[in-house]
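Shipment paperwork, digital attachment
Item: protein structure file
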Amino acid sequence: MSIVSQPKKQILLELSNGSKHGYEIAKLANLPMGSIYDHLAELVEAGFIEYEEKERRKVYQLTKKGSLLLKVLE
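Attachment content:
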């Protein structure tokens, strides 16, 4: 059993390559737009990712905690 679901792992992997906004993450990770923001919110709440608002968009990035989790999952 995985600690983190496959969609959340995909999000973490995409963010390991640099900051991205939600739509970009969904397209790159091949995830449905309907669920991407729920996954992102849960990852933010858990402290694995964070965001900053740029030009009316939330741009997400890994936190140190998220980087460590990704290393454990790989």
